[in-house]
Amino acid sequence: MAELLPDRAADAPKGQGTIGVVIPGYGHPQFLSEAIISACTQEIDQPLQVVVVDDGCRFPETGKVATNLMERFPGMLYYLRQENTRLPGARNAGVRFLMSMVPDLDAVFFLDADNRLSPYSLQRYREVLGDDPLVGWAYPDISFMGLTWGEEGFDTRETAPDYSKLKHLVGNISEAGSLVRADMLRQGVLFDETMRYGFEDWDFWLTALDAGYVGRRVQHAGFLYRRRPESMLADSRRQEDELISKMRRKHAALFKPRNVMALEHREAPYFALVLAGTGDILLTSDPQADGHCLTREEFVALVRRWHHNRREFFFPDSLIILTQEQWDQMKAQPQYLRWLFWAVKEQPGNYHRWLFEARPRPYFEGLPADTPDMVNSILHVSAEGFSDLLRDAASDDEAGPVEFAPAVFQTPEPLVSGQTAPRYQSLFASLEKLVEEAAPKRPRVRHAGRRFAGPGAAACRLNLVDEVCAEEGRKPFPVATGTKRTLVAVDQDILANKAKCSRFVWLLEQLREAAEEVLLVIERGKKQDLAGLHPETWLPLVSDMVMLDRVPSGLEYRIYLGRRIYSLFTLKSKEDGAILARSVDRVITVGAAAFLEVLGDARQQGVKGYVFFDSIFADAGPLDSEDSAKILAFEHAEELVVCDNDEMVRALAAQGFPPAKFIGPQNFFDMLQNQ
């Protein structure tokens, strides 16, 4: 997690080149002299060059202030005047001037004309920036002056005590008054001069993230920000939705579901696996990915820090209490793990005991409250429920017993088996002990003049992770690996047919050459035991699987070109499918699977959909096939149709299907290999 990583900045080597300061000047000549003097009188052991960029200011005093001070700081202070380009253009002009004039430019600080620096500021910034080339900038806690809440004229805002990419996608945690490594600027990371109405600094940092850089916090930076009611930031808030939408489109790669889930896994893991009896806690957002292993003491420290300030610090949304033996048993059947953890995420309520049973047709559901305890179970506690337990433990009032609602996850071979009653009871004892150890002893104290003002941890999940990676009111499928992933959707009837299943296994073997992980979605329309679908042939070839329900084809249909197009997915299955599609790089339906109904949603997320429709998967001839009619109807969402049947290709093309969208099987696999 971001909060648990050590800060390597404190003892970093100092830079040897020149430090530049860019001060845009427009409309505030009464403050400009303070900014210039504070920049030119820095106590720093590196050469210093300061440039004031007069951005077409209508007040002649702006130029007079700068030129007068040039006599006081000869060879250090420079003055440029240009036609008005607004703040982004003025900053870029200053950067370009410094880069052309100073060959050994080491870093650049952006100081607005109404702000100022303390004498020690740039030295402190440069120490924190360090020499790691991937640390692109050092950002401050912001000490406000002017219009403030502080009784002594100052109050300080902490936007990100530990730098977090996840938080930076939700809100701007880096003030423009930061020290930026010159090499990052040389790589073309500059301000977008079309961002003329605010949030230009947030957009600048997102551009830096796109280029592979990260920031680092400067404590006690001595940066003073003048707050005014008519500031540009206040004006940008009136256009916030429009500006944020523009930035998300521009930096689309940062907001892709796969990237967001990977960031959550690294910085704010969703699950905490409390391994009863070992003292270890595993933090992860993906049960098939390597997680962060904490000792009991480290986790207790994390709990207390989060409990005292839930808005500031990330904490897992789900605690799963289980033994190491149970966890090892689960990992022995990895294809079900992500499906299980998704079910845990979405089960309503704060306290659950998950039961594991053998059932030939996998499924999960909540159970009646009076379901007896079963030893082959694990416990789940939500973060909200855990917080309630901590409050109860810290209070003098005696709390009543917690009721754990039962839920079941059933598979042909149960994920957990052979447990004993004492082992099961040890889970409750382990949770009770953890609550006792982590119960807050005293409130966390923050200086009255310092406040946290960054994006809330809960907002990062709700407004970014859930919004980008799931449907409204739903939770993302728990995948955080960066490997190539292909979703393959198939009707269970194909798997039940031995000849078709054999061809399907061949298809999976080809796909595994082009993808490291295959998510198999099996569509089930009637009761069918998994054993009848020949799982021994295809299960070893998939990384994870989910079964989605479909309805009898005669229930709902639409007419397209005089032919019936049946809607086969339930509303929930279609929603499930749209969430699953966000967790992969491509979707392939075997024939006209119900998953065709999801390809439009997948396409909106940048996930391409393909139809594998060779002869063995066709249900009938080209003119009377329900499958071909459906493939034709969803042509707008299909990237390509893989077909080895020339008659079928001609028939669909004659009905308006673009011939360029057909591809042969071998050409298709060759294409995937090169993607």
UniProtKB/TrEMBL annotation:
<dbReference type="GO" id="GO:0016740">
    <property type="term" value="F:transferase activity"/>
</dbReference>
<protein>
    <submittedName>
        <fullName>Glycosyltransferase, GT2 family</fullName>
    </submittedName>
</protein>
<dbReference type="InterPro" id="IPR001173">
    <property type="entry name" value="Glyco_trans_2-like"/>
</dbReference>
<dbReference type="InterPro" id="IPR029044">
    <property type="entry name" value="Nucleotide-diphossugar_trans"/>
</dbReference>
<dbReference type="InterPro" id="IPR050834">
    <property type="entry name" value="Glycosyltransf_2"/>
</dbReference>
<keyword id="KW-0808">Transferase</keyword>
<dbReference type="Pfam" id="PF00535">
    <property type="entry name" value="Glycos_transf_2"/>
</dbReference>
<feature type="domain" description="Glycosyltransferase 2-like">
    <location>
        <begin position="21"/>
        <end position="135"/>
    </location>
</feature>
